[in-house]
Design brief:
There is one protein chain. The chain is an alpha+beta fold. The chain contains 4 helices and 6 strands; from the N terminus they run αββββαββαα. It has a 6-stranded antiparallel β-sheet with strand order 1-2-3-4-6-5, with helices on one face. The longest helix has 15 residues. The N and C termini lie far apart (about 35 Å).
Length: about 120
Amino acid sequence: MTDDAVAPDPLPRLRRICLALPEVTERPSHGEPTWFVGKAFVMYSDHHHGGPLAFWCAAAPGVQEEQVEREPERFFRPPYVGTRGWLGVRLDVDLDWAEIEGIVVDAYRQVAPRRLVARLDAD
């Protein structure tokens, strides 16, 4: 992307992906849009504490380490929740929205009750 190009705001698209999942709600947490399915599973981070434009999400054990090692320019260990294995996903780089959707769905699966995961799988 050139300096002259202005990337569209990724928040509306991320919001649509999150809210399309069963029984997801959105409310602010620490001043940022956050999506919940009982517990938080994705948090938007608009340069939170000087970090990149990104989202932080729940991740399966080992995923954070694998992604950060493989692509540190796209993935990072976020503050606060990184110690619990959450993954930071940069939104200020070229984005593959199919991949972003997969990451969000995986985060949902980590937090959602089994009945909602079953509902997701049935759709």
